[in-house]
Specification:
It is a single chain. The protein has 200 residues and is an alpha/beta fold. The chain has 2 domains: 14-44; 63-194, no CATH class. It has helices at residues 14-44, 102-111, 127-131, 134-150, 170-181; strands at 72-77, 87-92, 115-117, 159-164, 189-194. The longest helix has 31 residues, at 14-44. It has 5 helices and 5 strands. Strands 3-2-1-4-5 form a 5-stranded mixed beta sheet, with helices on both faces.
């Protein structure tokens, strides 16, 4: 016995159609109102409202004369604005009692030879060779000494900062972060910023 298939042609439900039409009506009324206000403001010669959006903290330029508050590794080109020149790491430390700016700390690091140059081929070095470089030993010793003097117990305030040229090799950044993470909760934060400009 053959069964007949009965197919009903269903129309759209009226309540859902009314909802869709109502939402479209609201949308067009709201957008039309904004465009009418903008065009009437142009005719009157009024300027559009100046909306001040908040800036992202990560992209904020840090003033060059900011006060140094923690251990800072500044990584820059050996020759200013020459990305083909070797990378130099400077160890900047705050002064004991008197506030010191980053530029003053940079001058102190140059005077006290608290800097080292990465060789041009450091990316080709094996991991153990890279860690034996004078620049890496300088970083390791600086983190250890600063931790011994200032970070006596775990705290969220214990921070190490890195400032580097925007195209610095990640291998250097990663090494500093690994050295800090070796002390676990004693150094829980590493702040990284790109250098806006470097003064000699």
């Amino acid at each position: 016995m053959a069964f007949k298939r009965s197919e009903e042609i269903r129309g759209m439900d009226l309540p859902s159609l009314i909802d869709v039409v109502f939402l479209l009506l609201i949308f067009f009324l709201v957008t039309m109102q904004f465009s009418v206000e903008a065009s009437s403001a142009k005719r009157r010669g009024a300027k559009p409202p100046d909306i001040q959006l908040p800036r992202a903290r990560g992209a904020e330029d840090v003033p060059s004369d900011d006060v140094l508050s923690t251990l800072l590794f500044q990584i820059q080109y050996a020759v200013k604005n020459d990305s083909s020149s070797p990378r130099v790491v400077y160890v900047l430390e705050p002064s004991g009692q008197n506030p010191i700016t980053r530029n003053e700390a940079l001058q102190n690091a140059k005077r006290d030879s608290m800097f080292a140059i990465f060789p041009r081929d450091f990316l080709q070095l094996k991991e153990n060779q890279f860690k034996r470089l004078p620049a890496c030993r300088l970083i390791s010793d600086a983190i250890f000494n600063y931790k011994e003097e200032h970070f006596h117990r775990p705290s969220l305030d214990n921070t190490v900062e890195i400032r580097a040229e925007k195209d610095v090799e990640f291998k250097i950044i990663n090494f500093i972060m690994q050295e800090c993470s070796a002390y676990k909760d004693t150094i829980p934060r590493v702040i990284f910023r790109t250098l806006a400009q470097v003064k000699d």
